[in-house]
Design a protein that fits this description.
This protein is mainly alpha-helical. The chain has helices spanning 2-9, 13-25, 33-45, 49-61, 68-80, 84-98.
């Protein structure tokens, strides 16, 4: 996740996604919640809403449960992508679906 974060900080999201793909192919290094949150945060930094939502969808498909931290990163993704209404919708939907109690970081 540290290397992925470095790529995200440098706006090299293609390289970060490539590394995610490599991790998924590996039997030793499986992407976890931190990996996916890091990628969503990278997308949020540069306002790549659709790409961030694709990462969330993949996270869910891989059976990785979102957390309050995921919700806070999704709220950042939505607001930085000029879609603040989606921040509320995402948090409400995912908190209900996964039984997450929203905390102060999300608000």
């Amino acid at each position: 996740s540290t290397i992925i974060k470095g790529y995200c900080l440098e706006n090299r999201l293609d390289k970060a996604m490539e590394l995610l793909h490599d991790m998924k192919q590996s039997s030793r290094y499986r992407p976890d919640e931190i990996t996916y949150n890091t990628l969503i945060d990278g997308c949020a930094r540069y306002g790549h809403y659709d790409r961030g939502m694709a990462v969330l969808a993949e996270m869910q498909e891989m059976g990785v449960r979102p957390s309050n931290f995921t919700l806070s990163v999704l709220a950042k993704l939505a607001t930085r992508s000029r879609r603040p209404e989606r921040a509320f919708e995402l948090c409400e939907d995912l908190s209900k679906r996964y039984g997450i109690r929203l905390n102060v970081q999300v608000y």
